[in-house]
Write a structure and sequence with these properties.
Layout: E1 2-5, H1 7-15, H2 19-25, E2 27-31, H3 32-39, H4 47-57, E3 62-64, H5 69-79, H6 83-95, E4 98-100, H7 104-112, E5 117-118, H8 120-129, H9 135-148, H10 153-164
Parallel strand pairs: 1-2, 1-4, 2-3, 4-5
Helix pairs in contact: 1-3, 1-4, 3-6, 5-6, 8-9, 8-10, 9-10
């Protein structure tokens, strides 16, 4: 399954030490605009930006462009989304693929447009279920997501419960 990942989720999965495993297991695309948002962090020597650039150079995912600029602007106006989130959703719509976002407004827009929606905690659980990470690594990743993200506690708790129950 191909998945369009936005900058927020890429950064969070990087902080959770899960992005490298995730990109090996799935066909991931990132819009050029979302990628550019991430890479701005290189100026501040953010580890996540450096790791994501390394993964791109290793061809762990590919950059893509959107076609529908009008829809892109609509998402910015109607939902107050930035370039990365707007372009990620537009690409997902154009190509009928899933979208990985943890941004509240982007998730709302994705639901309204009927996209298959994935969040970073779900990725961690899926990596555990696929035996790509062990229980300790999965709990570590979820704790990192709790600290770095804006997730409501119950979302992380539900993911942890799913891992506990194997």
């Amino acid at each position: 399954m191909q998945i369009a990942m936005d900058a927020c989720s890429a950064i969070l999965l990087s902080k959770a030490s899960s992005i490298d495993i995730f990109t090996k297991k799935h066909n991931i695309v990132i819009t050029t605009l979302a990628y550019d948002e991430i890479i701005k962090g290189k100026e501040k020597k953010f580890d996540d930006a450096l790791l994501i650039e390394k993964l791109f150079n290793e061809r762990a995912f590919r950059k893509v462009e959107i076609k529908n600029k009008e829809l892109f602007r609509k998402f910015q106006y109607d939902f107050g989304l930035g370039d990365g989130e707007s372009s990620t959703i537009v690409f997902a719509i154009e190509n009928k693929i899933a979208v990985l976002t943890d941004n509240k407004q982007a998730r709302k827009a994705s639901k309204i447009y009927g996209l298959k929606l994935i969040g970073s905690p779900e990725i961690v659980v899926s990596l555990f279920k696929a035996k790509a990470v062990n229980k300790d690594k999965a709990f570590y990743a979820l704790e990192k997501l709790r600290k770095a993200g804006w997730f409501q506690d119950y979302i992380i708790e539900m993911a942890m419960e799913e891992i506990k129950n194997g």
